[in-house]
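Attaching the record inline, Q. Sequence:
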Amino acid sequence: MTFSKSKLTRIGVFYDGNYFFHVSNYYQYQHERKARISIDGLHEFIRHQVAEAEGEDVKYCQIVDAHYFRGRPRAQEAEARGLLLRERQFDDILMREGVITHYLPLGPDGEKGIDVWLALETYELAIYKRFDVIVLIACDGDFLPLVRKLNALGARVMLLGWGFSYIDQSGKDRETRTAQVLLEEVTYPVLMHHIIDDRSRKGDQRIDQLFVPHKETGSYQKPMEMKKSQALVAPALSAGPSNGMAPINVRTTVDAQTVAEAPAAADITATADTLARDDGPPSSDSEASPGNLSTANGPTSTLSITPTLTGTLSNGVLVGKIQALREGFGFITPNDGSGNLFFFHASVLNADFNELRVGDEVTYKIGNNDKGICAVDVEIMV
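Structure, as predicted:
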């Protein structure tokens, strides 16, 4: 038996991790898909996209190397914010898919140096491993010199980029775009939002497989199914403070403004060349432990919290009900009769935001965003 082609098309994939999580959070919380991006599905999509672009049989287009770069909180900080388990779970997913991880600790100003590391590692591996096609999952115009260097090596560069509008943790309208200079410089620019939202491809298995099936979107347990020891574990894959999206220390051009995403938080600025952080600093208040709360009738059980008449428990923990849910955010009506409070999906600690329902009783703390006070550290009462 003879084959029409014997030479493998070698593909290297390089992730700007915080950008990827920003995109994944958008599809999980603010897009009609209500599901995260699947690493396995994305890699399969890449193979087919490269095969189509190169005019080759997909079986000869193989991902031989994949690398994921991100700044993330230090272990003690992640544990204090209930994020350590979620970080480890995502690491397990990456490991299962053969993705090599590269992390730097987040500092007070967010990510520092991760983009440089991504660029240097990509260029070095392109020389030593001789990739035929290098796939960048990024949006930052600062990667332009890298793309030009890769072009000079003779490699073809495919860029997976997204563009979409979303609501940030302050309730403001924001927009993410991929730097136009990158789209113009790479060999194969791929605007993923156009492909995903293309009505003519509705029901396309390759597109549907880009998303984690709903039955898997948590390996999370719904609140009523959680073990007592897991009651305060944050279910969302995130690496940032509870009231913000992830810090993505990425810079773009004027027509490529974007913001950071959800595993680590980021300030948002209106400047054209900075992907800013859109969260505040993590709260220094200690987390309320249901097992330590008590009512007039005595101590409560670990999973049962009885609100007081004033709607206040202890340590600044308040009680209310979910009044409304929108795309990635909602409002809580406090039991003390005060006005409704805005909360962001990343502020929910012991349930996935998409599992919440109007009328659910919750505990929360008072925080601040750009518009004033809001609810943070939201936990469903079970």
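The CA atoms of residues 37 and 131 lie 25 Å apart. The longest strand covers residues 61-72.

More tomorrow.
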